[in-house]
Amino acid sequence: MSEIISFNENTNIVALSVKKVVDHLLILYTNLIEKKIPFKNIPSVFLWGPPGVGKSDGVFELSSRLHELTGKRVNVTDIRLLLFSPVDLRGVPVPDETRMFTDWLKPRIFELDPSNDVINILFLDELTATPQSVQAAAYQITLNRQIGEHKLPDNTIIIAAGNRATDKSIAYNMPKALSNRLMHFEIAVDFDSWSDWAVNNAEVHPYVLGYLSFDNSKFYKDETDVKEVAYPTPRSWMFVSNLLNLMSDVDDIFELYPLISGCIGKETALSFLAYCKTYKDIPDVKDIAQGRHVDIPKTVDAIYAIVSAIVSFVSESVKKDPMKLSIDEINNICKFANRLPPDYRASLYKRLTDIKGFLQRLKQAPSFELWVKTNAKDIFGKV
Q: Which residues make beta-bridge pairs with 89?
């Protein structure tokens, strides 16, 4: 039960990180595939959560991991229901050959591949925000796996998502008769899970990862004024990261304030940009890897910055080539890490061990092994 982040008394369901939801669904669907049990034998999935917490990212992560585990091609059809009308979902009525009855032309979004070597994921996003006429059509899909006379292929997984009524977004209450026919997950905002994902799966700018590691209270703003339109969420931080990657040649990062504040709000943007200035004062990670003597930063924010810079440096190197960093370079990084204050040292090693494909090479570094023998059991257990 340690994986449970919280429990929502209003909805009567547990709240899990996106990673945990994906893990559970992966086990479920791979079991169905291995035992050749049709997807229709289990309820369609509904993901609840506020805007920007990674519901759609979780669906695409699920598709990627399903492909890795099953070898099947996984196609995701992402339908943003706010952009659809009932006709868009059910199709256009046309007379049959006798001109006595009506047939329905199937919408192209339901042109799903029924092949045995394919898994279709039909993702119905923003369901609770749509008009009731569209909801009725979407509910027929989730419950009956068909719309009008058009049936979905048996190899189709159906996942829907929407905001809760408490999220200060447009959200209609779900009928009880419908909710009892779905499998519900509430997405909880969890920085540690996002950080692990960011290090391994996304081109997250080190400034963003460093700042949020320094102050993860700014990762997500739950209580926002109803008039606020820009505020921090996992989604809006990715927008900031993309901006920084795109505008890397800007001399003064404060020139980006109008763009960044437009994503995360003025106060968070000012705090973030002030933090970014510390990056100019931290040592070059390449010097650390080469074994050159580097002084430990004296301020807390600068230490967080160098820790994040090291993680980003190693992660990018491993992505390009798992063998790119020599054991000597890894050991030099560990020598520097062992000079950090204990909490920051543990944080750095924890994040380095989370980088996919790096732990075995990290274990070959004598300075890491020395630290493991004296400290790691208390933090990681057996490494």
A: none
